[in-house]
Design a protein that fits this description.
Length: 197
Amino acid sequence: LGIHALDRYFQFFGLGTPAGLTGFAESSGTIPTPEWKASVFDGDPWRLGDTYNTAIGQYGVQVTPLQMARVAAALASGKLLTPTLIASSTKQSTTLPFTERTFDVVREGMRMAVVEGTAAALNVPFVDVAGKTGTAQVGTANQFMNSWVIGFYPYENPRWAFAMVLERAPAGTATGAPAAMNAFLWWLEQHAPQYLD
């Protein structure tokens, strides 16, 4: 695709810009581009490896949990939602320019990640979840990792999207955000099952 096409897709999903939560100061994050690299690294040229690393969310990619929750909701609904904390607010969204078949492929992959992949901790018996994990290396020597999981549920008729991140665990830690999200889902099942429908 190349970095410019990837950047356009990142923008469709609201990455690199504030999510628009009224009343809150938000970080916009960073999506690396050749222009970004030239300004940050004193004119150093963009290389193909920079594109590869950006494509998988590494290198200089910085996103917020709220941005990633929006991505999960967009994959579930086909619309990029503007977040709000007021339930009675008028919903605002932008329809994304992709076919339903494209969304179906991504959703199926996210469900498979839960059923037989890296997000298997979310394979609970009381609700079908779709998810995607990620691990961001941090620290001057990559000595820490941020463990991520995003997703939505119920899979067949999504109503809820989530993003969970556990920050700065020692590199190589075997459990992370999927296990924490598993505990949260079991808590919901016991104490607030209305949020699983």
